[in-house]
Design a protein that fits this description.
Blueprint: E1 3-8, E2 11-16, E3 20-21, H1 26-37, E4 43-47, E5 53-54, H2 56-68, E6 74-77, H3 81-89, E7 97-99, H4 102-107
Parallel strand pairs: 2-4, 3-5, 4-6, 6-7
Antiparallel strand pairs: 1-2
Helix pairs in contact: 1-2
Length: 112
């Protein structure tokens, strides 16, 4: 699982450079994100703009990341329609903070 990080003030932006977060990738995704957020007390934004497929294991890994954040909200940016559909069907669009793209996330603008 290829991940990259950018720091913008108190925001840690993690970009996922894969087209799928599924059962095969879920564990390495969680482990990779865990190592990136370990010492980051600020906002965490996952850039999912390259992700074209998210199954139940992938969704579970997003929930696991949210739990790693304790009381902080998990922010998700740039989700494609198919990923947004999964988040909506599972009501996770009400749990995560969704941003239309990374720029909106960095400005702190919630998706309406």
């Amino acid at each position: 699982m290829e991940l990259s990080e950018e720091r913008h003030g108190d925001i840690l932006l993690i970009k996922i450079h894969e087209d799928r977060i599924d059962a095969a990738a879920a564990v390495t995704f969680k482990d990779g994100v865990r190592s990136l957020i370990a010492n980051h007390p600020g906002r965490v934004v996952l850039d999912l703009s390259q992700v074209e497929f998210l199954d139940s294991s992938g969704l579970g890994s997003l929930v696991a990341v949210m739990k790693m954040l304790g009381g902080r909200k998990l922010e998700v940016a740039g989700s494609r329609d198919i990923v947004l559909r999964v988040l909506s069907l599972t009501k996770m669009d009400r749990v995560f903070v969704l941003h239309p793209d990374r720029d909106a996330a960095l400005k702190g603008l919630d998706a309406a």
